[in-house]
Structures are given as C-alpha cells and as structure tokens.
Amino acid sequence: MQDHTEQKSRLRSKLRQSRDLMDESMRQQVMTEINHVTKRELELERLRRDKWKLENKRLMIFSYLSYGSEASTAFLFEEGWKHGDRMLAPKVLANPARMELRRIMGEQDIQPGIWGIPEPKDSCEVLPPDRWPDIDLVIVPGLGYDLRGGRIGYGGGYYDRFAETLAAKCAMTDKRPRMAALVLPGQLQDEIPMDPLDLRLDLLITTEGILHIE
User: What's the average model confidence in pLDDT over 103-117?
Assistant: First the structure.
C-alpha cells in the first residue's frame, strides 16, 4: 500500500500558503457567492421536507467554526439559527484525540479553544455518536479537494476518525449525512493523494454552484 505522507505534507504547505495569500477583497466576493449557493441548497432541502410533509422541517448541521484564512462559516450559523436549525460545532479533545459534537445556539456559546480556534463552550449540549446519523449536512474544513470527493485536511485526522465512527453508526440505520466542503479558488486540485481511511466528500460547494460527487 502506498504511503502518501510526504506527498501530503508538501501539498498541505503549498495549499495553506496559497490560501493565506488570497486577496481579501477577492475572498469576500467569493464568500458572498458561496453563501448564496449554500443558502439556496438549504432552502431546497427545507422545501423537500415540506413536500414530503415531514414534521421535522428543521435541519441538523455540523460545521467547523472558521478560523484564519479558512472559508468562513459564520453565515451558515447565522442562517441556521434564523431557521431554528440544530447547529453543531466540534470541540477537540485529547487522550484519545477525538471531536465532540456540541450544539451552539448563538454567538454566546462560542469561545477561543486550543490554538485560539473558536469552539463550543463546555456548557453546550453534546450530541452522542448514536445520534450522528440524524445529521443532515456536515461542512468539513480542508486545504484542498478533487472531483472524486478527495480531501486533504490539516493532518490531525480528527475528521477521518469522525467519519469512521459515523460510518459504523450509519451502518445500523438507513440514514447518512452528506459531507460537504466550501471550496475557495485554488483549492480544487486534479487529484488529492488519498489513503484508505481518509474521509471522502459528497458535495463541493463552489462559487459556480454545487458539484455532486458520484
């Protein structure tokens, strides 16, 4: 089995540098377009629920809280809170290294965590792994993506471990969240080197619209 460690490491630093150097006015314009595309997708999902006469029209969304040069997720949380969606964000824990999914109801529930990265407060309700299949949409952070759903993250493996646990829980039910990423210019690559346990995406949310991975 091929080990992509060194290749990934080189790609990570190249992609991180290019994202950090993005022109601020371009970033804002791109995020406005991405916000618009995401909002439309969420509206369609709510309409589908109406059509199916589903009692629960509110979505459950798990997303990273953006930091530094990442694609901003602030609009997503604002939008979710406005519609009464259940908005979840990750809290990183050590020993063993894992993420807890905690519900945040507003700005007041967010604080700077490890490395200054925003995270939910300890008082926020935890969603147990058995409930993870109920999530509708997961917005995953990353440095680069490809059209086969490949993704390169930051190297901590937190989202890969999350995806592994999620897959085990989903195997016992007929539900599975869709995994998506917000794609900034320069992040879409011809091919991302992938290892067997790496998380794969279902949707790429771009300025042009949503790319569905088959």
Answer: 93
